[in-house]
Design brief:
By secondary structure, the chain is mainly alpha-helical. The protein folds into two domains: about 5-175 and about 295-325, Rossmann fold (3-Layer(aba) Sandwich); about 200-290, Orthogonal Bundle (Tyrosyl-Transfer RNA Synthetase), CATH 1.10.240.10. The protein is about 55% helix and about 5% strand. It has helices at about 15-30, 40-45, 50-70, 85-95, 100-105, 105-110, 120-135, 150-165, 210-220, 235-250, 255-260, 265-290, 295-325; strands at about 5-10, 35-40, 75-80, 140-145, 175. Strands 1-2-3 form a three-stranded parallel sheet. It has a two-stranded parallel sheet with strand order 4-5. It is globular, with a radius of gyration of 21 Å. Pfam families: tRNA-synt_1b. It catalyses: tRNA(Trp) + L-tryptophan + ATP = L-tryptophyl-tRNA(Trp) + AMP + diphosphate + H(+). Homodimer. It is an enzyme of class 6 (ligase).
Length: about 325
């Protein structure tokens, strides 16, 4: 079985894009591969966080993973900060990485914008921590959205450079991008990925949104010129909405288009809101049930962290020996 790794930042705003782009594929992968999945809380603190809120979000993310079908008996599930080897390897890899490589990271440019000199150093260097996350576990495959492919390429470059300079140590990972549904786009801007850090909540459908919120957001979603419910080139808004409809109902976009021949956006949006609501309700009930038993969530994370520390330490022993700090 291939060793596969995936992770998400803890957030109270996990949305449809997170589910279809990362969580659902992980549920499938755990049945076929050796899957490592964790809550990247150290990545979350690259921007200011309220401590109590971050703690709640770590538990919420864990509950959501479990509710969606992640099985800790099949998947190594843990909290990133509970495995200190992640931060240790990140520092070593920062000494291998080059400034120019990090300056070329497009996500940093997008997030920092014109305020690059005022954002945290962590926001600049977090791709190196992501590389450490990947390389610690002999990862062969990293499922990512197209926007994260550049970060996996950095992990590859750092692994190859370290292996060249210090001897064969790391497996060189490969990115895996899901062809359909990997990039669910924003409802308010179909040219950008649905994002929990978006300026407006109208950008995304949260996994916890109720029926009223979903209907309001879908009705407010931007559309393309014309009235045809049709996907295709030059129609990014309807392509995105039809993709969401298709992912939720497991029906092809062509079938859905045929249902709305001669109908307008109003009918389509009302139905889209309904199918999303019906799809989310059982998932929301499962998440709430898990959150009612926080102590069990902590036990699951702690058990996973213990196993992860054992795996990570085996790799770190080799790294320390290679660079000359092991006495």
């Amino acid at each position: 079985m291939a060793k596969v790794l995936t992770a998400l930042q803890p957030s109270g705003v996990l949305h449809l894009g997170n589910y279809f782009g990362a969580i659902e594929p992980a549920v499938t992968l755990q049945a076929q591969h050796d899957l490592t999945m964790f809550v990247v809380d150290y990545h979350a603190i690259t921007v200011p966080q309220k401590p109590d809120e971050l703690r709640r979000n770590i538990l919420f993310a864990t509950a959501a993973y479990l509710a969606c079908g992640i099985d800790p008996k099949k998947t190594l599930l843990f909290q990133q900060s509970a495995v200190p080897q992640h931060a240790e390897l990140a520092w070593i890899l920062q000494c291998v990485a080059r400034m120019g490589e990090l300056e070329r990271m497009t996500q940093f440019k997008d997030k920092a914008g014109a305020k690059a000199e005022k954002v945290s150093v962590g926001l600049f260097t977090y791709p190196v921590l992501m590389a450490a996350d990947i390389l610690l576990y002999d990862t062969q495959t990293v499922p990512v959205g197209a926007d994260q492919k550049q970060h996996v390429e950095l992990a590859r470059d750092l692994a190859i450079r370290f292996n060249r300079d210090y001897g064969e140590t790391f497996v060189v990972p490969e990115p895996s991008i899901r062809a359909e549904g990997a990039r669910v786009m924003g409802l308010d801007d179909p040219t950008k990925k649905m994002s929990k850090s978006a300026a407006s909540a109208k950008n995304y459908i949260s996994l916890l949104d109720d029926e009223g919120a979903i209907l309001k957001k879908v009705k407010a979603a931007v559309t393309d010129s014309g009235a045809a419910v049709r996907a295709g080139e030059g129609r990014p808004a309807m392509t995105n909405l039809l993709t969401i409809y298709s992912l939720v109902t497991r029906r092809s976009i062509k079938e859905i288009e045929n249902d709305y021949l001669g109908k307008g956006y109003g009918d389509f949006k009302a139905d889209l809101a309904e199918v999303i609501t019906l799809w989310l309700k059982p998932l929301q009930a499962k998440i709430e049930t898990y959150l009612e038993h926080e102590e069990e969530l902590v036990k699951i994370l702690d058990a996973g962290a213990q196993k992860a520390r054992e795996r990570a330490e085996r790799r770190m022993k080799a790294v320390r020996e290679r660079i000359g700090v092991a006495l």
